[in-house]
Known about the structure:
single chain, Rossmann fold, 2 domains, 6-stranded mixed β-sheet, 4-stranded parallel β-sheet, 44% helix, binds pyridoxal-5'-phosphate
Amino acid sequence: xxxxxxxxxxxxxxxxxxxxxxxxxxxxxxxxxxxxxxxxxxxxxxxxxxxxxxxxxxxxxxxxxxxxxxxxxxxxxxxxxxxxxxxxxxxxxxxxxxxxxxxxxxxxxxxxxxxxxxxxxxxxxxxxxxxxxxxxxxxxxxxxxxxxxxxxxxxxxxxxxxxxxxxxxxxxxxxxxxxxxxxxxxxxxxxxxxxxxxxxxxxxxxxxxxxxxxxxxxxxxxxxxxxxxxxxxxxxxxxxxxxxxxxxxxxxxxxxxxxxxxxxxxxxxxxxxxxxxxxxxxxxxxxxxxxxxxxxxxxxxxxxxxxxxxxxxxxxxxxxxxxxxxxxxxxxxxxxxxxxxxxxxxxxxxxxxxxxxxxxxxxxxxxxxxxxxxxxxxxxxxxxxxxxxxxxxxxxxxxxxxxxxxxxxxxxxxxx
Length: 416
Ligand SMILES: *Cc1c(COP(=O)(O)O)cnc(C)c1O
């Protein structure tokens, strides 16, 4: 019997100890155990309180601009279907593809990340904290945290690797404009994994008045669960919208996976819909064989990173490998434990898309729909194009807008 068929309800995780099957848990020093347990109990109480959710949804409506549309990409769909018709000329089971886009790119700050930072800021205020800290790689989560710090009036420090500060100047400037202090992390290679270690270490010194805002469904329990609860609004809306507008559930849902928050956000409300195929897309970068990628599930192994057990990129001695992708938001060297679990039990399929495939999808969406997607989201789009060979109605999580990527894309296209 397959592992999948032994599970009757995929939404029942994590267990009381923060495990999704074999993955998750708490792997931190003793000083952080108490604050994490306090956080878990505060989150548990908040999630039982309807006023907490009322305020959360009111902010999502008034400040973020939700709900985000579910949009039928007609010209893109026609183009893909025509290409297919030529390919299988005269075939009687001709499939006409329909691509739908869940428009997280239209949120304030340009991506899904703000759904999570608003939730955690509300929780921080409820717990009486005065300061927010966060780690950031490309700077997107740092900006989303600095944004809600300004909205609520928290002091804010964002830890960022020295190398990332150099590479991501526009986001450093945004955070500073928003009133946050950006702290340079010089240890290791000066990138995201070093910033994550430093933030956990710093937090252990200041837990009394400081809330640690984690940016994806990773980190020690209760973060993977908490962040999912804040991001599942994406899938809850999409489920209603598809029933309403498309007249049924999609055949397939595709989302890009860095740490996995936009993906779990759109997947979660569909986990028990057996007929809906769920596809997570990892960045294959320059190709899995080159070693320059961010495919923790397709090319990683089991280990401990960022305080939890999951799949990650490491060498034989457990040293973390630097992840690489054309899109900075996907180069996290691990993946949230719930994804490691959903892969293990076979509920979600994880595929990979290269830099070049993502670039091509990026250009297609610009050309056929007048929408400039984030390079992260372009990975999901590229995979959706492949899924049109098997599925008719495909929903893509368009996790963010591509304005931040224009300079980068221009430089790459000019080189080609
Ligand atoms: C950060 C980011 C991602 C990747 O993060 P997840 O936690 O995997 O969702 C994807 N898309 C965009 C636009 C992002 O900013």
